[in-house]
Amino acid sequence: MTVTGQDTDARRAHRALDDGRSAVRLRAALAVGTAPDPRYVAALVERCAVEPEFFVRDMLTWALTRHPVSVTLPALLREVRSERAQARSQALHTLSKIGDRRAWPAITPRLLADPDDEVARSAWRAAVLLVPEGEEAALATTLAARLGRGGRETRLSLSRALVTLGEAAEPALRDAATAPDPGVRAHALATHRLLHDPEAGFESAVEEAKRVVALGGGAGRAAGSGSGRLPGDASQHGGQ
């Protein structure tokens, strides 16, 4: 194919990615991912920042993962500093899918505490996948500082991130379970239960944690037990 022909294809792909019809944008992202070309990376990243449809964004991310990391990584690292929340969120999501730990320095405390819940959730998911060996406990402490934040989906995302860190999250969760804020204590206790009982449902864990907090329970009562149970719980917990 001639250079002119390649340029024409690139312009056509760019137009399709900006088309007003979501089905056209979806097909364009699929085509670009099927036949990767570094010239498409900038357009894919730009579209991620504004694409309103989840299923199209998912295809855009897939298309980016099909391109060389040497091309996508610099573009995504710039995007996590964008002023647009969706741009940050999608860039973080894509970095978690690529899984290259060279992106770790970009997962800053500022992103982990981003005021936009979707950005924060994406940062938490990326962080636990990209964290270097030996830094899991420090990350758990940073994440535990966010316990009690937001609504159900945000709290569930944070719990999942902490559970992904495994035993490294234990000290941070025990500390958070003694926090003055009852919402923080309950979230910490619910996450602690999920860490030791993966089959427990989140809603069940939260309700049990609220009961324990209401009765004045805290992680200190279980600190030496090694049972992995919630403080004050004498029963065996089954799955939800």
Structure description:
With 240 residues, the protein is mostly helical. The protein is built from 13 helices and no strands. It has helices at residues 3-17, 22-34, 41-48, 54-65, 69-79, 85-98, 109-112, 117-130, 136-144, 152-164, 170-176, 182-196, 202-214. Helix 2 (22-34) runs parallel beside helix 4 (54-65), helix 6 (85-98) runs parallel beside helix 8 and helix 9 runs parallel beside helix 11 (170-176).
Please render the helix and strand layout as text:
Elements: H1 3-17, H2 22-34, H3 41-48, H4 54-65, H5 69-79, H6 85-98, H7 109-112, H8 117-130, H9 136-144, H10 152-164, H11 170-176, H12 182-196, H13 202-214
Helix pairs in contact: 1-2, 2-4, 3-4, 4-6, 5-6, 6-8, 8-10, 9-11, 10-12, 11-12, 12-13
Biased composition (Gly residues): 218-229
InterPro entries: ARM-like (IPR011989), ARM-type_fold (IPR016024)
Protein name: HEAT repeat domain-containing protein
Roughly how many Å is the radius of gyration?
21 Å
Question: How many distinct beta strands?
Answer: 0
Helix percent reads 55-70%
Q: Rough shape?
A: elongated
Biggest pleated-sheet summary: none
From N to C, what is the helix and strand string?
HHHHHHHHHHHHH
Low-confidence stretches: 1-5, 219-240
Note the total helix count.
13
Distance between the termini: 58 Å
The helix/strand class is mainly alpha
Q: How much of the sequence is in beta strands?
A: under 5%
Mean pLDDT: 87
